[in-house]
Amino acid sequence: MDTIRPRKNRKKQYIVLLILFFLSIGFLIYHLATKPKILNVSAKELLIKEVKNDVFQDFMILQAQAVPLESMLINIVEGGSVQELFTENGAMVEKGMPLARYTIPIQNSIFYHRKLQLSNK
């Protein structure tokens, strides 16, 4: 026959676990609030200079790579060379500003050859 098994009452266990949880949270908060707020630095890492009234320059040296938000691929069908650069590396440019002058020697020779043919006629 089936026997009736009494249900396990874990209410006391849950209460003890909740009390332990809140005590640990309270200890953590107390520890963080009363912990001394100091930083131990070795004497070798300190740099002491004379105090003077001057412009404050706060900078950090970083190594980084700049990536443009929008990039444009230029496809050149005929070969040529860059004749003149109008901007320097890292300079600020505006939209529509020419960056370099590109020359195609073959096109220039064809243009001058046709111009000579037309002037000889």
Automatic annotation (TrEMBL):
It comes from the Bacteria. The chain crosses the membrane at residues 14-33. Keywords: Membrane, Transmembrane, Transmembrane helix. This is Membrane fusion protein biotin-lipoyl like domain-containing protein. It comes from Paenimyroides ceti. The lineage of its organism: Bacteria, Pseudomonadati, Bacteroidota, Flavobacteriia, Flavobacteriales.
